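Schema walkthrough. Field components (list of strings):
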Amino acid sequence: MTERVPEDRPPLERVPLTNRERMAIERHPMPERPADIRAHNFEEVNLGYSDLLAIAEAERCLQCRNPKCIEGCPVRVNIPRFIDLLAHGDVPAAAESLLDDNALPCVTGRVCPQETQCEKLCLRAKKGTPVAIGYLERYVADWAQAHPEAMTEHSHSPAGRSVAIVGSGPAGLTAAGELVKLGYAVTVFEAFHAPGGVLIYGIPEFRLPKDIVAREVERLVAEGVRIEKNSVIGKTFTLPEVRERFDAVFLAVGAGLPVFMNVPGENLKGVYSANEYLTRVNLMGAWNRDSDTPVLHGQRVAVVGGGNVAMDSVRTARRLGADDAVIVYRRGHEELPARAEEVHHAEQEGVRFELLAAPVEVLGDDGGGFRGVRCIRMSLGEPDASGRARPEPIPGSEFEIPCEMVVVAIGTRSNPLLTSTAPDLRVNQGGYIEIDQTGMTSMPGVFAGGDIVRGAATVILAMGDGKRAAASIDAYLRGAPAAESAPTSIG
Amino acid sequence: MHKIVAREQLSPNVTRLVIEAPRIAEIRRPGQFVIVRLGHGAERIPLTIADADPEAGTISLIIQSVGKSTMDLVDLDVGGSIEDVVGPLGRPTDLIESGHAVCVGGGVGTAVVYPIAQELHRRGVQVTSVIGGRSREWVILEAELGTAGTVVTCTDDGSYGRPGFVTEAVKDLCEAGGIDAVYAVGPVPMMRAISALTRPYDIPTTVSLNSIMVDGTGMCGGCRVVVDGETRYACVDGPEFDGHTVDFDLLMDRLTTYRQFEQEALARRQACLIPALAASAAAGGDAVSAAPAKAKA
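Field assembly_structure (string):
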């Protein structure tokens, strides 16, 4: 635990620093649990700033008159404002400011790719290192979560209208937080037995502790958001049924189906989708001895893919006892799509990287067991449609990675479970939902956002969609007649 | 929370639980299933909906207690409750509209064919159910199936009904002719054998695959099976498929993924049970008579 400022201590009188003095302060690194210890447990890797580190880092912010960092943020957090309040030692005001803009700051402070968003545009990045905006966000958000009594209670004047949100991941929870603030009666439908979506089943404990997510959800529930777990829209209720009973609907179901490699041997036991592997470990708690849900513990584990999900999977395998946990990625180190911090942490924890390689076959042995995965070396050619160098196999370069387990983390695609029960909902060829510029689908009053619209992306982009959809739903409902009844539940 | 409103032991290791689940009771169709989770730390277990009473708002689940999680579930008594029940999941069975159907149930699979037989009978289809068990005490739902057509009961040891396996009785029915569809649910070797024997007669044969699953919505891909050379998900594309095109070897193999874990979990459960029994016996409790039967199963 980090040391906290005692409640009764008045904010320190501070002499304002000059820009020259601010520029002289170097970026404060995040305190981390040592790699050799954390590689064998599920405790959070990043420990968070202490009070002193947070204020010292906040003082690095130049308070630009025209701050670029805000433009880099998909939910448009007023970054200089909360950092300024923090630099003045007024943490409660900084927390109020942050929570006004961002419904899940404890989450984004941990999982956002700041280096490609706010911090990339920070003026200080031009001549050195950017302000550690993500670390400061986490500090302030964690303070707010630990001090609910210090936060102003918002009472929302009821708008008399109801909104159903399908999916309790980052897009759904963000929209719920925004809409409840506007006074709507919000019901969130979740297919699983616990809310949070990818924040609960996907991102591991060591990167985003589950009690942090649970407390963020509790805060929304305290504000009036109703959560209906175990409700699969498309099965338990159809989308038209939901639409009929609510004034508006926001679809934020994520891109639910795993993509496999389509190579021989892929259905052998011991080959997991990252979705299944991470769900067993995270949501079902298979990392913990008290859980009844099993998961295989390979001594040698190959994880296919180079994104955040691949890093989460390989670091999980390492923690579950893999001596050799290896990333197999078809492009090079530069092209790894994962956050820089995740790659760095994986390297520190002893993860091996087999770059410029792609699996061609999963190999079984004669006894129905598992021998490994046969791969081929790749070289990078001309840029492809995505603008990235196209990997091309080098003939005759096959080699074997011996292992007992393979996790496939090469992406997801749209799940037709919901869309197939709603013939009026227009989807594109890939099965993703089509929306107009306001976020509305082809069904009036039904909006959509997050991965089910844009394809697999990040938590923060989904949250940006949730925030925009909430504003559009508010605008729509101000101009639309109410449904006959405005229930909060359709059970 | 879903309350248990009735509990009945159907065979030495098969129990019927009737639970409150009004929405599912209202809309479920034959062939669909639910996933239940007893409470904190428990597994998610897929179970076919054996029956439903929309008016009472209840569904029946028929559970074979073979491992730690299913034993925990059948230990529940009336008044107890299950924290999570989600569904109805999976596609409903494709049922014929007329003619003669044979519904084959092996062991607890009989609970899956029961709602199918019921609905076929309601549609006016002639139904012959062929069910089996090791011996008389392992036969379940004979009377219930009797309300939905003719029942042929087989026991392996000949202690009741027709001696021998269900496959032999089904073969005789195929020989006699006039069968329009076969619905077979039971252990994988039984479904494979039934599918093999109906193939030469070209009788459409539906089997229900009990692969391992987590979410039941297509998200994890753990339940993947190969049907007609293509990878399909039992949870959303099934659980029922054309038995003539299912890769049963792959299914059998994938079902053994967690065998070692399951055996260890069971051993731990029994190790916990024994001191509890000893304490109960010392205190003059009556747990001794009930618990060994569960432990044995």
